[in-house]
Structure formats: structure tokens, C-alpha cells
Amino acid sequence: MSAIQAYRANCCCTYRWLARASAAILAVTWLLAVLWEGVPDHGVNLPLAVQTGIIAIVFGGYALGLRYEMAGAIVSLVGVLGFFAANKLLLGAFPTLGFAWFALPAVLLIVSWELQNKERRETAPSDPA
Length: 129
Description:
Layout: H1 3-6, H2 12-37, H3 46-65, H4 69-91, H5 104-123
């Protein structure tokens, strides 16, 4: 597919690359925030360890989505929902809604997957029988 085709309206490639770009931006931003804040002086406690593990699941979903879009999207969405649930259970409050941005790449991957399937159905040879 050429670059011109990739930017037509409702093209699955556009959403796929938007998902990849947004995932990369979120990953780099999160990594910079972790490096800026550092490990707390009192060490790593259970809520921090759980949050870090769940964030790893979200980023693992992003990586999986590079090859398997729907599977990566599902893993990422489960991670985002798990992060909200873990914060509520461990800290007694939901995280700020800004964390919902971590679901954006997953949503874009789902849109890309659906558009790709739609394109395949439309271009598939019809059975004359």
C-alpha cells in the first residue's frame, strides 16, 4: 500500500499508525516520568509494584498489537481497566481520568482491525453459486 492510499479516509493503515504513534508517545512519556520521579526513598511498596506490573501489561498489549491488533488491544484494555480497579482496591480512589489516555492506542487498534476486515469483505471475490 502506498503512502497516498494510507491516508485516505477510513483506511485501516491510518488508524494502525496512529495507534502505534500514540503508544510510542505514551510509553516514552511514562518512562520519562518514572526516570524524573525515581524510586521513592521508602522503597517499593505493594501498590506501586502492582501499578508497575499492570502498566507492563498495558505496554505488553501495545507491543502485541504491532503484530496481532485485536489481541494487543484486548490486553491493553484489560490492563487499563485493571489499573483503575487496582487503584480503587489498593488506594481507595480511582486514578485521574488522564490515565484513560492509555486506552487510546487500543481503541485505535480495534478501529484499524475492523476497517481492515471491512476492506477484506468488500474486496473478496463473491461466490457466484
